[in-house]
Amino acid sequence: MLEKSPSIRVLDLLIRGKPDLLDVDLHHLSYVKAPGKVWPKDARPLRKLRFLDLSFTKITKLKDLPTNLQVLHLRGYDADRVPQSITKLTNLRHLYVDGSALSKIQSIGQQTELQELESFIARRGQGFMIRELKNMREFTGRLCIRGIENIRSKDEAMEARLMDKKHVGALVIEGKRVPKFALEGLQPHTNIQELTIKFFQEQDFPDWVCPDNLVNLLQVNLESYHFLSTIPPLGHLPLLKLLTLRKLPSVKHVNGTSFGGFPSLEEFKLHSMEKWEEWTEPDAAAHAYGSSLFLGHLRKLHLAYCPSLRRFPHLPCLSALKELKISKPGSWILALPACSQVLSSLITLAVEYCNHNVVMSAQQFKSLENIKLIKSEGLRLADGFQYFGKLRSARVEGRPQLLSAITTSVSVGFGQDCCVAHDEKQQQEASLLTHLRADDSLMYGDYFRTVGKLPSLRNLTICNESNGTNFSVKQELWFQQQNSLEHLCIQGFHALQRLPSFLVTMLSIKILELHGLHGLQSIPDNALPLTFQEFNINNCTSCLSTRVSKDGADWPYVAHVPYIRVNGTTVQNL
Fold first, then answer.
1. For residue 180, which phi and psi values (nearest 5 degrees)?
2. Is the CB of residue 251 less than 8 Å from the CB of residue 228?
3. Which of 299, 365, 450, 565 could form a disulfide with 384, with the two C-beta atoms 3.0–4.6 Å apart?
4. Measured between alpha carbons, how far is 399 from 440 in angstroms, rounded to an integer?
5. Domain segments of the chain: what residues?
6. Other C-beta atoms within 10 Å of 567: how many?
């Protein structure tokens, strides 16, 4: 039938149901039935076809394609099923093929009208070398070049003519090893806005990696540079908004003046720079292009696995900062409690693996809505958890001493407004908190007195191992205060032998999830109230899984719950 349809403009053979026959609605065009495994022997009658999607179809012999195609989707096709005749589609502008298949298309450079190429893998051999990119000047989106280790000289790299591709918006350069001579020959046009370079294996960059040649850059990602010791002056890029530095193990010192002042930077991510010790203060000249503030527009700062960093320049002055995520920090974090202006503007705070003794006041975080504290033994609050006035979501795990008692001498350092003795305070509540995830340390010590009632709490997850076989009276009383709770998840309490009795009285709870409760053998009668809507059991004892099945001994006690799921299998869905 396709051979008799020369007027078709759009044909989509994505098979979702029947493998051999698909009805295609072509909107204002004619109604077409096309075989799902057979392609026409002669595609010339489809000469007006511009868009063709054959993704995940089962056509085994795909040979000639309509010559005037502009958009072609071949997702799910391996290299053996993609026809080499694809290079004859000289009008093709968009090609969507899986990376493994794309790398096997020989002489793809003949498709000079292509506007984007998800991945070009440079290889040795005719039709696969970097020179295939030479005449492809119409790129307008993202160009990703891999296999840089196969380029043998700067002159060979220059054959790609990247400087002529003035419409490329984003450039990715990577390989198992990126030598300096290859990178020297891959200088992009000055219009480039996003640049990613991975696995560069030299101590310093080519000369073109400088502000004068990259004046329009908005995003930079440098990753996996084993030998690089000096970071280029990225802080002098006037428009740079997002910078990611990841896995730079040889960087020890950063000169703040030469690195620059980042006049437009909004998001800064630094990860796995284990030897980085010093970032010196920039002088006034580093504040490029008239900006008087160092990192004055920074909204998101992520510092992960930089354990040797002693100081972060101008930390107290980052008044625009809204999100701070820290993991395994250096001693620079000791200065954070004194940065009241920074803390008061934060909306999101995440601290992981912090062993430094850091004491802060919840009342310093006047805007904080989200907090995550993971395995941070040294982090403490000088006042109660309830003093996070705008907190909406909290995750506290790893047995932190977050709410342990703080001596008066330490507390007074925050001033009378923040740290008055508990018995002189009017009881407050974290009235906006809706989501809380905590480990079993929530169940012990001073947490109940300091956390108190959470009037807006909707979702609560208690996780990690505990030796307790049941909930204590105090703990159950605390749960009963949370009368807005709708979703409760109890996870990883391996020794827990019975469900808490408060469940039957808390009619607000609609969803109960039990994960990894290896000591729980059964569900007693009347344990689950009639108001329950969902009951989910996963990775508990096989005995429990059997007892809550429809033929199990506990089925009468759970059958009133409309939706029941056990180990990923839906048992009931009413």
1. -65, -40
2. yes
3. 450
4. 8
5. 1-114, 347-446, 458-574
6. 12
**Rounded distance, CA 537 to CA 517, Å?**
9
Band the pLDDT of 123: cuts 50, 70, 90. Answer: confident
CA distance 516 to 491: 6
Of 311, 285, 312, 308, the C-alpha closest to 298 is 312
pLDDT in tens, 409-445: 344 344 444 444 444 444 455 688 899 998 766 655 5
Structure tokens given for 330: 């250096």
Q: Are 572 and 563 in contact (CB under 8 A)?
A: yes
- Distance from CA of residue 35 to its chain's centroid? 41
pLDDT of residue 412: 38
Distance between CA atoms of 180 and 260, rounded to whole angstroms? 24
Q: What is the pTM of this model?
A: 0.84
Residue 390 CB neighbours (<10 A): 15
pLDDT digit string (tens) for 163-202?
999 999 999 999 999 999 999 999 999 999 999 999 998 8
- Residue-wise DSSP of 394-428: EEEES---TTS---HHHHGGG-TTT---GGGSPP-
537 or 124, which is more confident: 537
3-class DSSP state of 340: helix
Among 466, 477, 520, residue whose Cα is nearest residue 501: 477
Distance CA 87, CA 136 (A): 13
Neighbouring residues of 351: CB distance < 8 A, sequence distance ≥ 6: 326, 327, 329, 372, 373, 374, 376, 379
Return the structure tokens found at 354.
């912090």
- Residue 411 C-alpha from the chain's centroid: 37
Q: Tell me, what amino acid is at 209?
A: V
Q: Which residue has tokens 């998840």?
A: 489
Task: Give me the amino acid identity at 224.
Answer: S
